[in-house]
Write a structure and sequence with these properties.
Shape: rod-shaped
Number of domains: 4
Radius of gyration: 47 Å
Structural class: alpha+beta
Number of strands: 21
Amino acid sequence: MKKSAVLFLTLLLYVLFGPVISAYADNLVIPDTLQEMDLSNHMEVYLDHDRLNEAQILDKRNQFVPLQEANPSGDISDTVYWLKVSLDNKIKRQQDFLLEIQKPHLSSVTLYTLKNDRLQKEETIGYRYPFDKRNYKHRNLVFPLNLLPDVSTTYFLKIETDSFFQAPVSLWNPIAFSEANYMNQSILGIFYGIMLAMILYNAFLYLSLKEKSYLYYILFVSGFTVMQAVWDGFAFQFLWGDFPWWALRSNSFFIIWTSLFALLFAKHFLQLKEHSSVLYKLVTVFQWVCGLSLILPFFVSIGVMTMIGTVMAAGFVLFLIIIAVTVRLKTREARFYLTAWSLLFIGVLLNILAAFQLLPLTDLTLYAPKVGIAFEVLVLSLGLADRIKRTRKEKAYETKKYYVHTLLQNAVQRMTEIDDFTPLSQEGLRCLMDITHFEKGFYLTRDRTGWNVVSKVNVEADLEDFYIDQYASFQNGRSGIMDGSTFTVPITSRSHTGCFIVWSSQEEVDLSIMESFLPAFIEQFSALVTQKEYLNELRKSAMVDDLTDLLNRKYFLEKVSDIHNGAEQASLLLIDIDHFKNINDRYGHLIGDEAIVFATGLIKKVFHEKGIIGRFGGEEFIVFLRNVEEHEALEGAQSLLEVFRQEGMPVDDYTSIYLTVSIGFCISQPNSCLTMDEMIQRADEKLYLAKRNGRDQVAV
């Protein structure tokens, strides 16, 4: 078969699977201190189609042509290739050299020496013969040469190959060859060590994870590594040197093997079925063809099998390009995959440019394909690990998502049975803290006076105002609302504005699950708040004062009477705004209403959560304190007076009113058996006493 018919396929096969290209030297001759000489430019070749014997080939000596001119590389045929070179040793001593053919896959190579116009056979080696039969045990084909002093010696090489013909020939000084071989063996040892380590590492991962992509990756890298070992000669040297029959067929077998599992890996790793169903089906058909072709090396001739392997490799390259164009950078897997193969192609390109002397030949360009292969395997392994990590994270996320939504359903069921808003917000706060695993939190609501704490968990009472101020700063765009991680959940409904705030001392907390949880939580909680609002409006119409949102007189007395039995200590404060009529007369009744609301806010500020507050009528307020020591109740009253003195009520942009109040105080000692009516009577008397004594004071 002529090389023009297979040249393109040969190049593709070489780019993917060929070994590193040998160094070329320019017009080298044998000097006194020869280290290495490339003989390719000094050899002649004769293409023997008739399988001539040694005597007949000598008659064709004049028909030998320069090797570079004939350029038989890439041929696949039954041709026997005869190479001839004459070496002239003008030194007055014998020189020993090594003749190396750097293509170990050649089937048979016989070295002849021309003596007395006859060809004397020196040695025959190649893949057709056991490795142990070689005189020089090396992965490449190496012949010892002994050049006699001041003698010109002609050597013939008879080469037979069942695959592509390539025969780069070099002449070496034995010491230089040993040094170069040591360096090559070290570099290749690192390469094969990396490949073996990746195979073993990913094999353990596959046994642990049972992920199919890992299996295809392992089989792909294993085939790729063995195929490189075949091309480098290590497979024949260490694995099957005693089995020439298999050695001749191993190359095409592992080319198909690598193409098959590389496509299987790409198909599953890149999730090709989701991105292109048509291409997925075509790749599936091609992989079945590759799978069936794996048995062909055992039945088909080696030359035909080499062509089939080349076609399979070309098909693999074609599908690889189509897959790259189809998937591009749509997914993280595609980015890893394209990066990996790009590194391999860059390595091969550097080597080819060095072979054509477009780049300087260095260790980097010489071994660039091996470096590219190693990096390709590493990047693919990283991509596979990244995919498994994300898959496991997605499964964990779905499990956690199911857990949090179950938690939400249970919480909503409990909250549906709650009538009062405070325990409702407490339950919602507990639900959020269970999801986030945060340690602290509270629920704020906003009314006319600002933000107020409705419910809290692990929040100190004396720090509530601080946290409220910090949250207000956060709302205004400042940073650093609290130490650690903070999470806020705003709640709005028909007439309700609130916010859950939970936080943790941990600096980094994964809150990704909240993206799924929060919309459902906000929707459910807002619906419950709206439902409670309708119920509360009905209740408020019966028991809450419209202006102040405090308990009206009737409901206050009912509620306090239910809890006060006279057997425990209790305090009662009657609070009246001083000179309130003057405010109405001077500013009008609207400002008067605002003054009542303003006073309500200050009273709530002092006695919030300490007792029960109600509007007794007009500008009068009533506060009931249960189980509070007398001095604490009086301190609260004094604090209220002080708050009124310090905080003014703005009337307009330039005017503020400073209100004062008079307070009547009554205390019921334990077991005094004072009724609520009696306590109110006594407090009322003290209120009038405070009025008569000048107002802005507490009368006890």
